[in-house]
Known about the structure:
Layout lengths: L3 E3 L3 E3 L2 E2 L3 E5 L6 H14 L3 E5 L2 H4 L14 H11 L2 E5 L30 H18 L10 E8 L8 H13 L6 E6 L2 H7 L7 E6 L3 H14 L7 E6 L15 H14 L1 E8 L10 E4 L2 E4 L18 H13 L18 E3 L2 E4 H8 L3 E3 L5 H4 L5 E9 L5 E9 L1 E6 L2 E7 L7 E3 L7 E9 L18 E8 L2 E2 L3 E6 L3 H5 L13 E9 L5 E4 L5 E6 L2 E7 L6 E4 L7 E9 L7 E5 L6
Parallel strand pairs: 4-5, 4-11, 5-6, 6-7, 7-8, 8-9, 9-10, 10-11
Antiparallel strand pairs: 1-2, 2-3, 12-13, 14-32, 15-26, 16-25, 17-22, 17-25, 18-21, 18-23, 19-20, 19-22, 23-24, 26-31, 27-30, 27-32, 28-29, 28-31
Amino acid sequence: MQTFEIKEDFLLDGKPIKLISGAIHYFRMTPEQWEDSLYNLKALGANTVETYIPWNLHEPTEGVYDFEGLKNIEHFVTLAQKIGLFVILRPSAYICAEWEFGGLPAWLLKEKGLRLRSTDPRFMNKVQNYFSVLIPKLVPLQITHGGPVIMMQVENEYGSYGMEKEYLRQTKQLMEKFGVDVPLFTSDGAWDEVLDAGTLIEEDVFVAGNFGSHSKENAEVMRKFMARHGKKWPIMCMEYWDGWFNRWGEPIIKRDGQDLAKEVKDMLEVGSLNLYMFHGGTNFGFYNGCSARGTLDLPQVTSYDYDALLTEAGEPTEKYYHVQKAIKEVCPDVWQAEPRTKKMIDLGQYPVTNSVSLFSIKDQIMKPQETVYPLSMEEAGEGYGYLLYSVELKNYHRENKLKIIEASDRVQVYVDGELEAVQYQEDIGEELVVNGTSDKETIELDVLVENLGRVNYGFKLNGPTQSKGIRGGIMQDIHFHQGYKQYALALSEEQLHAIDYNAEKNPSQPSFYQIEFELADIADTFIDCSQYGKGVVLVNGVNLGRYWSIGPIRSLYCPKAFLKKGKNEVVIFETEGREIKELVFSEKALTD
């Protein structure tokens, strides 16, 4: 059995080892992709793989756990060992990772006033419940038990959020209570304020840094910080940013491969590194994160390509070969090889088979919750996707003043089935003037609220906009209306099966489009969304994620594993009143 220690060097079986690692998030790709991705990391010259573990994915409903399919962390780690890689795990309650709510489950928001990432007993009790299930699965995978896991993270970039050392201490104690005995670490930015706030160096928890340039300068900051605390630990960048994530409506961010290779070489000369990301993958479903800039919440795109060394689909990039060469120059004895490649295929185009308006089938696919005052998205359902509020207002046969108070994130207002307004967080609350149908005594008001993704980093983590749906209410004239029907639309398998395509269609309303087709062969591909407005695409029941006409990404990656030889079904939920006529595949990603 091998040993791993952290002294003045990382020591494997008592001998110094330089950790050359890359980040691969098992949950951002299909299990069928894991082996090629891990092999390509090994072929790069790496000896370690790193991954986060997202709490919200594994405990989607409080007390209900899921470790199947792409959530099977044990299988991923075992496969890494088989390929010859060590593993660094980051199972902290919070992960950031440009992932919905930074990995925190939406159901935490049902507890009013709960303080996240703190010693709030309610929060720590829920962390303990989660760790009591997760950590025992990881214990046998540790190097101390014959597995490949050499380190685990206590918390992620806590110094960029808080400074409550007792919270870090309690988290560490929980991990140890449930059997973690490999070295523990924290990772923070490379400057004194966050290192002081976010580390447990006084309790011998290893300190790693996160940065993506100025390698030697940042390494020196880390070295001096550790020296002030009497430590001579090795330097490691736990997140060496080789690219960046993207947001809707903004240009794609790219990083020059030769520039990255030079910086990687500098970093390896002074320490160890983990390339973040090696293979980015995809934010399937509703799991994309959201940035916060001032008063604005800026949702991130479905693709987590990250301009990484492998593309979203797993293809080696030019950047891969530049970094591979740089590693060899600093570490001439590493094993390297040609990476595996794959071919993306255009699978053709197929006409829409059926379509139906959401409004005509809402009572068939969902049981409404009727309340006096509106429910939030977390109260009404799982907290992801959409929530439709249906309200009956009195028609005063003149201009009716309406306001939607405290809602997140995107609101579409329909009056008697016609789109009246679209509001975003920055203008929700502005007055609307609506006219009902002249010969009716009531106004049918439908308000579709979309959760665009919860903030995953920064000061808004505990903010009110993390709770989605309508928190305040709907005002008619100057009073709050009472009486709501709420339809939680998470696009579950049950909801999809309940769609009646024989009901009324109305392309001007939020609608479902069904495409049924047969495939003689299957392959990795992309779905062309360039003619669509906004919505999501589901392939054989699997939610590929969101598309949006504002770009910069105009396609959705569809792994081979989601398709079938023979009959396939694609369902598109389109919210913008654009009538969809066909499904078009592409052999490449479409971007601005």
